[in-house]
Amino acid sequence: MPKSAPTVFVVDDEVVIAETLATILLTHGYSAIPFMDPLQALNYTKIRLPDLLVTDVRMPQMSGIELGIEIRKICPGCRVLLFSGHASSASILKDKRIAEMNFTLLAKPVHPKDLLLKINSLME
C-alpha cells in the first residue's frame, strides 16, 4: 500500500510566499496547504493534522513560534520549520522556545532547492 503524502501547512502573511512554497512542495510529493493567517492554520487542525509546519516567524496575528507551540500541543509529532528575513537577529536566536521545542530556523529568502533539502531531512 503506497504511503500517503506528508501534510505540510505553509503559513506566511505574504500571499505570494505562502502560495509559492506550497506549490513547490506540491510538485515534490507533499500535500501542502497554504495559509496567510496563522489562526486559520491553527483552526484547520480540527480538519487535518500536519506532519510539518513551515511558517514565517513574524506575522501580525501570531508569531510562527507561538503557532508552532500551539500546533505541537495538538499534534506532538509535527515538525516545525521556521523561516525569517530576520533569522540572524539576536531576539529570534535567543528565544529559548526554539531550542526547547526542537524547531528548525532558516533564513529567508531561501532557495527552493535548499528548502526542499531541509524539509526532506526533517521528514526522514
Task: Outline the structure in words.
With 124 residues, this protein is of the alpha/beta class. It has helices spanning 15-26, 38-44, 64-74, 90-93, 96-100, 112-123, and strands spanning 7-11, 31-35, 52-56, 79-84, 104-107. Strands 2-1-3-4-5 form a 5-stranded parallel sheet, sandwiched between helices. Helix 1 (15-26) links the parallel strand 1 and strand 2 (31-35). The radius of gyration is 13 Å and the shape is globular.
Helix content, binned percent: 40-55%
* CATH fold annotation: Rossmann fold
- What is the arithmetic mean of pLDDT? 89
> So what's the CATH class?
Alpha Beta
Radius of gyration: 13 Å
Q: From the helix content, strand content and strand pairing, which structural class follows?
A: alpha/beta
Task: Describe the secondary-structure layout.
Blueprint: E1 7-11, H1 15-26, E2 31-35, H2 38-44, E3 52-56, H3 64-74, E4 79-84, H4 90-93, H5 96-100, E5 104-107, H6 112-123
Parallel strand pairs: 1-2, 1-3, 3-4, 4-5
Summarize this structure as a short list of keywords or feature phrases.
globular; Rossmann fold; 124 residues; 5-stranded parallel sheet; alpha/beta
In short:
The protein has 124 residues and is α/β, with parallel strands linked by helices. It has a single domain, classed as Response regulator (Rossmann fold, 3-Layer(aba) Sandwich), CATH 3.40.50.2300. The protein is built from six helices and five strands, in the order E-H-E-H-E-H-E-H-H-E-H.
